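Lecture notes, continued. The same structure-token format from the folding unit now serves as the input rather than the output. Read the line below as a description of shape only.
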């Protein structure tokens, strides 16, 4: 796909040469070894048996309450401002007063979304989540018992403080606990909570409109308090982010959380231990970066920062809050009056929720880019038609506008609703993740305020022309995504540097000056992940050229498979069969096209071309060969380095299982690999020999 950053599957033989070079480059760094703990059970949930996938699902659903509050507060005012009792209590507020009461929430959210990036790095994700819910509850209480315009504005600002905090911290927290293969789906489930909050507020407004007193608008506002307190006290049950714990050297606690999330509570589970090593390596690498300020983030990660902010900017400029905040006014302008306008808004909200469900399954199979591009097209068309029908002012205008609004909301809920909340938290490195999410969220609230404040005025001044204006912004967002946004589907958080062409600092060396007689310290540390070992930082020019050539061939293989129509079929087979498949089907699933088999280290053809240009190498001749997927292709004659493979490394075929010894518990015990000699063979420990027995394409 033109303009995208695409990842191809690197054949196993192209990875082998990097194992020795990486092991020698990191030496005996003991800081990467998981701590020895007996039991996990770090949170109240794990103590009662909620672990593994169950714990992950519980965290996702419960954290979604945070974005539910965000959606509820956005939608609740849309039905209240048209109610007769509300308008009478506030003495027929002007369009300026209505705009201020609605949009002032964004000012409070803007302030805290900027500040909470630093606070989340200092105090942790869990504590910031708790205090965000408390602030929201206080603001909701003030709105409920308001005595006039001023107190309503104060309550909205304080609620905005809570909303800004939650809208920043919840996506960050979610991304840091989610596995790469399901990160997109879990984030989209979370966003569905946002739309459910919006739809719930609309229906509550509709049913409360039958109350013939001020309770018709005070009751919907009071529900904010109940939901906020539920989130606040429920957050005390959640575990802290393991990445934040490891970044603050709380290694044992971090290992316990990882064991609960990925090991079913077993701290010896290979996947949990491997996850620990990857995160800890990334933490130690990022500590080479002395400056963690916003300025440093702009300077070093300019492209990622622009993507994070622009995605949220266009999520607002594309016109969603013209509908979310003022849907009843939009329907009234089309001819639906009173409760009928609220009813149409409620029906629209239900369709809005349903539109977010397909993204759960497509975001980790189809990818982020295609979803955003298709959403931009549908939104632009529906907004342009909405303006056209309002311009005609024909008898069918009312029904036509409802249809256009429903299509627009469905397109937004499918695309530009969830993805901009997912991208910032997954593309930024750990050292800047909270700050990147903070800045992107602040961008969202800044444009949220502009749209919320300006929409009532523009609806009076330019009328139907407002909708083609937002259709133009949808077109601009299509162009931006097409040429600038990379595809991040299936990419582990710790490996985003390679996708964007950023080279991390070398992995810090361990200080083993006091361990000269320690047999464990004398053994080389296993490679943490072949993607790091094959990074250009650890390669000579010849190795980099070979790596780039392999990446180019893999990209060609992937393009051939796509053109043959096999891409979606193989993904479907992988999802349906997975580990229980027969051998041929499993080999098909692991040949580079499964949803969890595209690691980030498989850099794209564009990156490969850049490395070739940088190294001054040229493409060699070609010979015929076959890819792991069985598709005949041409391979460059440049031979890959044939370094000796460590004695402890047992490479299977393209499924590539790693069995690298590293005793963490029984130092000096074990017999080593049968019939093999070499460094690190003696002292193998059965508890750790499976730490890297994971397919290299598991993500």
């Amino acid at each position: 796909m033109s303009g995208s950053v695409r990842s191809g599957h690197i054949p196993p033989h192209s990875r082998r040469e990097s194992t020795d070079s990486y092991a020698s480059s990191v030496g005996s760094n003991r800081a990467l070894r998981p701590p020895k703990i007996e039991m996990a059970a770090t949170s109240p949930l794990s103590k009662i048996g909620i672990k593994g996938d169950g714990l992950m699902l519980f965290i996702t659903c419960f954290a979604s309450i945070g974005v539910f509050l965000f959606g509820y507060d956005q939608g609740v005012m849309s039905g209240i401002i048209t109610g007769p009792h509300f308008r009478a209590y506030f003495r027929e507020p002007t369009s300026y007063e209505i705009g201020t009461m609605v949009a002032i929430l964004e000012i409070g959210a803007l302030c805290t979304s900027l500040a909470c990036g630093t606070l989340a790095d200092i105090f942790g994700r869990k504590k910031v989540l708790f205090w965000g819910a408390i602030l929201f509850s206080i603001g909701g209480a003030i709105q409920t018992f308001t005595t006039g315009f001023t107190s309503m504005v104060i309550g909205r600002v304080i609620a905005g403080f809570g909303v800004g905090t939650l809208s920043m911290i919840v996506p960050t927290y979610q991304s840091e606990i989610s596995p790469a293969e399901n990160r997109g789906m879990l984030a989209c489930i979370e966003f569905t909570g946002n739309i459910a909050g919006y739809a719930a507020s609309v229906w509550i407004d509709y049913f409360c409109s039958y109350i013939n007193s001020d309770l018709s608008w005070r009751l919907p506002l009071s529900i904010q308090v109940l939901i906020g307190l539920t989130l606040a006290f429920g957050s005390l049950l959640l575990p802290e982010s393991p990445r934040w714990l490891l970044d603050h050297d709380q290694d044992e606690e971090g290992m316990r959380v990882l064991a609960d999330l990925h090991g079913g509570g077993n701290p010896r589970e290979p996947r949990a231990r491997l996850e620990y090593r990857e995160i800890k390596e990334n933490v130690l690498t990022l500590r080479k970066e002395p400056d963690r300020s916003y300025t440093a983030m702009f300077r070093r990660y300019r492209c990622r920062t622009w993507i994070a902010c622009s995605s949220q900017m266009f999520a607002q400029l594309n016109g969603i809050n013209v509908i979310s905040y003022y849907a009843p006014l939009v329907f009234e302008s089309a001819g639906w009056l009173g409760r009928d306008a609220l009813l149409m808004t409620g029906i629209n909200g239900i369709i809005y929720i349903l539109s977010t469900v397909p993204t759960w399954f497509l975001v980790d199979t189809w990818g982020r880019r295609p979803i955003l591009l298709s959403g931009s097209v549908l939104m632009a068309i529906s907004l342009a038609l909405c303006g056209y029908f309002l311009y005609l002012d024909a008898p069918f205008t009312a029904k036509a506008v409802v249809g256009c609004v429903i299509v627009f909301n469905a397109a937004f809920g499918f695309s530009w609703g969830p993805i901009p909340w997912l991208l910032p938290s997954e593309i930024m490195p750990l050292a800047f993740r909270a700050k990147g999410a903070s800045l992107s969220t602040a961008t969202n609230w800044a444009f949220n305020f502009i749209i919320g404040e300006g929409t009532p005025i523009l609806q009076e001044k330019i009328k139907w022309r407002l909708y083609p204006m937002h259709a133009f912004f949808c077109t601009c967002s299509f162009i931006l995504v097409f040429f600038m946004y990379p595809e991040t589907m299936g990419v582990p958080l710790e490996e985003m540097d390679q996708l964007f062409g950023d080279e991390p600092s070398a992995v810090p060396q361990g200080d083993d000056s006091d361990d000269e007689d320690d047999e464990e310290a004398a053994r080389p540390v296993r490679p943490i992940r072949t993607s790091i070992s094959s990074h250009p930082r650890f390669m000579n020019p010849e190795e980099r050229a070979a790596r780039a050539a392999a990446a180019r061939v893999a990209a060609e293989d992937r393009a051939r498979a796509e053109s043959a129509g096999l891409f979606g079929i193989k993904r479907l087979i992988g999802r349906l069969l997975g580990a229980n498949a027969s051998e041929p089907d499993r080999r098909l699933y692991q040949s580079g096209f499964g949803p969890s088999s595209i690691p980030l280290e498989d850099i794209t053809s564009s990156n490969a071309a850049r490395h070739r240009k940088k190294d001054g190498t040229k493409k060699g001749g070609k010979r015929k060969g076959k890819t792991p997927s069985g598709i005949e292709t041409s391979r460059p004659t440049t031979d890959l380095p044939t370094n000796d493979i460590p004695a402890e490394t047992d490479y299977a075929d393209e499924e590539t299982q790693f069995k690298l010894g590293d005793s963490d518990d029984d130092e000096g015990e074990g017999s080593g690999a049968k019939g093999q000699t070499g460094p690190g063979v003696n002292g193998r420990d059965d508890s750790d020999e499976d730490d890297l027995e994971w397919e290299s394409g598991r993500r």
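Point for the exam: DSSP finds 29 helices and two strands in the chain.
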